[in-house]
Design goal:
This protein is of the alpha+beta class. It folds into two domains: 113 residues, Trna Endonuclease, Chain: A, domain 1 (3-Layer(aba) Sandwich), CATH 3.40.1350; 83 residues, no CATH class. 43% of the residues lie in helices and 24% in strands. Strand 7, helix 2 and strand 8 form a beta-alpha-beta unit. Helix 1 packs across helix 4 and helix 4 packs across helix 7. The longest helix is centred in the middle third of the chain and has 24 residues.
Length: 213
Amino acid sequence: MSVRKIGPNSRTPTGHHPSLKSGRMVQFESPLELDLLYRLDIDPDVISYESQPVRIEYVDKGKARHYTPDFLIHRRSGSKHVRLLCEVKTLSDLDKDWRKYSPGLSAAGHYAERRGWTFEVYSEYEIRTDYLWNAKLLWEHCREPAVQRQQTKVLWAMNALKRCTLSEIAGDISALPDEESAARTRALWQLIAQRRIRTDLERRLHGESVLWI
């Protein structure tokens, strides 16, 4: 449940994202925040996430103030359920207004520490990487329901190949009738997103990207 509603903003686009992890619409306040949500949706260790999750009260220079972090992320870490509180800011905003943001960020760090959580600030440096490009590609296919029969056929093919390039298995799939080819392609991307077919998602996917089981 968001403690703060995000309204229209003349400076930056705002909106609601159909979260694959949380199963509902999640607010975002900037394009950079939306990019983070694409990453979270394709991260197999992320359980769910919440926007504008807590209002943190603190005192700065004798004045009572409050701060609301952007997201609370629930993750798996081995057998543990861990929580990560985070703020999303561009590097230019951080550089320009660090003195304004610093007290609230410090208060969020203490708030998280007292609860056994962690707190992080994410900028475009962490978010806008090749992984984001891949996440957006995979996200489009993961919006569609998984068809077990098609996924099983892709896994059979991968088990026979053991290791191949993306273009090699895509070439085999493209030889199928159109409807079957489209369904099999979607299953391939979903399996990559689920990490049931492995590849290096830290590098932008292309025809020569290596896949393996």
